[in-house]
């Protein structure tokens, strides 16, 4: 039951908790040393694909059962988002850079560039800025 | 191409049967001199490698044996603590065997219950209505297949990712369960399965599945 189910509003929390438990479960159950770890799971109706970067960013995609390995797609989504958000040449809208004088007097050797926006967390269902959303849409269309 | 293990979980999430059919052991034995270049840390009743990955010894590996004698959890066969023994320079040079720690039966029980819950959450997270629980979980080293019967019993098989025919193997295990456990007059429902015929037939079925690569109908 999706509609009135209270759990649905907290879906992302449930998903994070589940993925964290699955990762710990898999690392204990595995008969051999793992390199990539948990990749995907499927039920009778959907398949959940998972990709985690070494920095802890998790990219999750729920697809139809017919989809195979889309790890490279998830990696592309991550790198596009990373590129369009983190590597922006313009400072972030709420301008969290330190005031000019402060940096000058304390550490003159530090290169002055805007503090990076913290990377977006969890699933691809969160809303990325317009540029990366277009890129994600293009990639998803390619999958069909 | 191998089938690693079989777990049977009852309606309440408790483990009622477990079989390790094939355990690939990645172990490394090396001789060391004082001081030890790895950092060992006690964890879960064992001494685990925390830092210093080299030569096949990875982080997370446990101390399995010292000088050829198997250790007993955190203690050597003589009853001394492994970490204290290895801190004493008088005991060197020493030959230590490291490897992935084997799961104790307690840990298997906990993992089975954990999977029981994950199975249920899998059906709740579904974007479509009417989804079952997790039927297959994939990692780079193994694939976990699960079949839940109408009565709530779960048959879980861990196999090599390339192993085929596990679906029919799961149905076959269900058949063996109903023939040799349920029809056994001394077996009580939802209790641990201690039926010799069930063990024997299950092992036979696993061997057939491994050899054939897939399970034929009517076997």
Low-confidence stretches of chain A: 98-130
Distance between the first and last residues' Cα of chain A:
27 Å
* Helix-strand category of chain A: alpha+beta
Q: Give me the Rg of chain A, rounded.
A: 19 Å
| Quaternary class | heterodimer
Mean pLDDT of chain B: 90
Radius of gyration of chain B: 21 Å
**Number of helices, counting only DSSP H or I runs of 4 residues or more of chain B:** 4
Structural class of chain B: alpha+beta
Large-scale geometry of chain A: globular
Overall shape of chain B: it is elongated
Main beta sheet strand tally, sense and closure of chain B: 5 strands, antiparallel
Order of the strands making up the biggest sheet of chain A: 1-2-3
Q: N- to C-terminal separation of chain B? A: 20 Å
Care to count the β-strands of chain A?
3
Helix content of chain A: 40-55%
Q: Which two chains touch over the largest interface?
A: A-B, 33 and 39 residues
Query: What average pLDDT do the residues of chain A reach?
Result: 73
| Major β-sheet annotation of chain A | 3 strands, antiparallel
């Amino acid at each position: 039951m999706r509609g009135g189910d209270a759990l649905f509003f907290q879906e992302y929390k449930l998903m994070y908790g589940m993925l964290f438990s699955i990762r710990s479960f898999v690392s204990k159950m595995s008969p051999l040393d793992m390199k990539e770890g948990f990749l995907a799971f499927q039920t009778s109706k959907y398949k959940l694909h998972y990709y985690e970067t070494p920095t802890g960013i998790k990219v999750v995609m729920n697809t139809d059962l017919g989809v195979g390995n889309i790890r490279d797609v998830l990696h592309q989504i991550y790198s596009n988002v990373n590129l369009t958000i983190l590597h922006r040449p313009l400072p972030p809208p709420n301008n969290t850079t330190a005031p000019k004088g402060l940096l000058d007097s304390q550490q003159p050797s530090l290169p002055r560039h805007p503090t990076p926006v913290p990377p977006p967390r969890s699933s691809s269902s969160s809303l990325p800025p317009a540029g990366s959303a277009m890129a994600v849409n293009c990639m998803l269309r390619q999958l069909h | 191409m191998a089938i690693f293990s079989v777990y049977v979980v009852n309606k309440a999430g408790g483990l009622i049967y477990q079989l390790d059919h094939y355990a690939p052991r990645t172990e490394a034995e090396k001789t060391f001199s004082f001081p030890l270049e790895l950092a060992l840390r006690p964890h879960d009743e064992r001494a685990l490698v925390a830092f210093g990955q080299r030569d096949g010894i990875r982080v997370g590996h446990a101390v399995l044996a010292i000088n050829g004698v198997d250790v007993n959890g955190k203690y050597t066969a003589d009853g001394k603590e492994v970490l204290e023994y290895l801190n004493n320079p008088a005991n060197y040079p020493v030959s230590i065997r490291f490897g992935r720690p084997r799961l104790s039966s307690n840990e298997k029980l906990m993992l089975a219950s954990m999977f029981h819950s994950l199975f249920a959450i899998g059906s709740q997270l579904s974007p479509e209505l009417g989804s079952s629980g997790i039927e297959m979980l994939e990692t780079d080293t193994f694939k976990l297949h699960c079949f839940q019967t109408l009565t709530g019993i779960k048959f879980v098989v861990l196999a090599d990712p390339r192993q085929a025919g596990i679906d029919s193997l799961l149905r076959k295990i269900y058949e063996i369960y109903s023939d040799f456990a349920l029809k056994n007059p001394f077996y009580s429902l939802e209790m641990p399965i201690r039926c010799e015929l069930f063990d024997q037939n299950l092992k036979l079925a696993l061997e057939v599945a491994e050899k054939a690569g897939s399970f034929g109908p009517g076997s």
